[in-house]
Protein 1
Amino acid sequence: MSETQIAPLTMNIQYTKDLSFEVPNAPAIYTLLRETPAVNISLDVQVRRLQEDALVFEVTLATRAEASIPAAPKSGNGDAEAAKDTTVFIADLAYSGIFTLQNVPENQIEPILLVECPRLLFPFARNILADVTRDGGFPPVMLGPVDFVSLWQARRQQANPAQANA
């Protein structure tokens, strides 16, 4: 067999495109924190074509972790205005990879870019987020498994609601 098979998906490089970690209420937050804060996670996949004449794409897994603790209840005066939660930290990570597709049918390009590529990037982004939150003096944020197929399907449904019912 002298023929060499070209893989349909090649990850050329992966990298941290953007990383931000903020503790807006430091140093006081470290004395207020008595338990693990509530963490809201948002995740998005962004795709950008890099070459018009080739199937080369930058795929970015954008993750935001925002931790907060409930505000202390106000005493006595019956304020109708609810006390705001206190922000513990905000971590923003954009983790990217450059991917080349070879001999991929047109109808498979979108699922590869929005499902397979983020699946390859995810473990690395997960580790970076855990390390940065731990290094910031907090319990590490450990992202659970992500169903990228469901995310892709939800995105398609939002983009074209009529087609989702077909």
Note: Helices lie at 28-32, 106-135, 148-159, 161-164.
Protein 2
Amino acid sequence: MAATGWFREAITYQILIDRFAGVSSADRFRPEFLGGNLRAIEGKLPYLEELGVNTLWLSPFCSTSAYHGYHVTDFLTVEPRFGSLEEFKSLVAGVHAAGMRIIADFVPNHCSHKHPFFREAQQDRRSPFFPWFYFRKWPDDYLCFLDVKELPKLNLDFPEARDHIVRAARYWLSLGLDGFRLDHVLGPDHSFWKHFRAEIKRDYPAAVLIGEAWLEGLAWRHLKTLRIRRKYLRWTFGVSQDGIQREYCGELDGVLDFAFRSLACAHIAHGAAHKGLADSLRKRLDTYPEDCLLPTFLDNHDTSRFLFECGNDVARLKEAARLQFSLNQPPVIYYGTEAGMTHARPVGTAEPHSDLQARQPMAWDRPNRELLTFYRDLIRERKGRLRTGRGAP
């Protein structure tokens, strides 16, 4: 079995650090730090153990200019508002002591415009950091993450920039992380990913590398920032979510299965006919390489919660969760889904800060206890099937 075989049996729980535990502000609809932190997450490990999950997935924890962590200002330090390096180490140790694994978001494609390297490059063309970025017309015209000027794109073809990112990833693995969810894998070139994988696997063969290869919200104007194969030709004649996901099989250990979520929304949440959906999903998975990991999820920090998609029909959420847990791919639970969290307005990729709807603080004081029991039973049943080698029903 591959060194990353442990992830086949993973039941992963996705946590947005600032919103999960330790929240001190109730102003949930402002894009600001609310106080969630690493120490408070460690305090909730008994809850996660009782739920039955065996893998935690943290949002980015490096120094950042934004509450969600994706605007990195230092790839080698912990964001002080989330905690200290010692608190990070304590959380990792606590997770492992509980018999669980822990992975984290890693953001190699871009950094915050407040990162000191970018600031120096903007102020001085002779800076050694100038070639770390894609300036088209210095100092204010540069490639970024899609259209987000706050996120200048890193030039990972430049050896010093590439090595800095790889060194950061290896550093966090040396402190006990069990792998990464790799943000926006469409941005860096495939040659970078091959190099990244080789450098990581040399000393950390069991570290799992799962990519986010997501098409939603992308347009022709964004292609200049992407490094996927035959991008202009494929955009002209049509490119599918499955096609993009397959592009990274073998290069990474796997990719998050956004296509599964789309199908679950269309056929279960939105009421389309779904007779035979489970069989068709299994046949679809058979078209992927056998060693490609495709973690399934119903919602995440960038999408509407599935219960909202269902019109708050808990029965439909349960149906989708049963389907998710029946497949031979590792399921992911977004924090609060098991507690019945929902919201009032949809998340839209073009609407500023609409994602705050799905990023509200964890409902510790008002969980749907019947749904929570359902998820505990679902997890226990899946573990039982894996233990007996029966896999999916």
Note: DSSP finds 14 helices and 14 strands in the chain.
Protein 3
Amino acid sequence: MYIFICVDFDRDYAYPMKNILHAVSKTIQLDSSNKLLNDPFKSLSIQGTINCFNPFMKYLTDKNLHTTFYFEARTTEIFLQKVQESANMFNKPFFEFGVHGYDHEDLRGDETGLRLNKNEEAAVIKKAKDEIERLFSKEVSGFRAPYMKLTSNTLDILSTLDFIYDSSIYKESESGIKPYKTKEGIIEFPVIKTPKESPMKGMYTYLWPLFENKRSLEETIDNYLQLVKNSVDDNSFISINLHSWHFAYNIEQNQFLSKDEIVKNIQSFDSLISALEIDEKVVFSTPKKWLDENNFL
């Protein structure tokens, strides 16, 4: 079976604000200055990603670990300006690129009250895709909606813009799952959420609870191993989902972590990966690679 490591490369805990299209970093949204919040540059923090970038990327590259990055375009542009040597670190054959919005927009307007019509949404997604492809000189294949919220138009827009797959839908499962083709022709790679009544106790396959100290490392590893154990289809997949900043920033405490704490979080991540690597039937891959190898397109 397949394991996908998926990294949402975005601003420090993107936070939606009423009547503001772009997301605001959690570390900044507590400021009372409307001028600050309304400026998409000044309301964006990437300090968490900067603080943990080198050790995390070194870990991935040292292990040649297949990883999919869903890039938020404005964050990525600013990050590459601040950490200029970082562009080369992404230039690995085992890395795959996707899009995660331009400014982490709330496409449905559930939180902001600013629902985008189809033309507006298409313009935002196209702008993000064009920017990521310009920054890396590499085509992107996939999309992950900000806040994991698609509109009724999103999949049609993705098809028009030549995306191949989406990964923005949660699916309850106690084992690995397989992608499916939508009526718009987009391949959907759902993100697993285990049932509450299962031994995994309603675990999302995002690593939020681990990094927020709400689920122990031992329990996290046991849950993923249980998902693998339950999986009988060799072509099924499980995604491990995280954020580029979460090794270095604790949301509940609203504080950046020390170097030692960052190292500890990366070691916890390594413990999970190492536990999964022991199983001979586990293959680390990416959605596009899965599609190519399984002749799904």
Note: The radius of gyration is 18 Å.
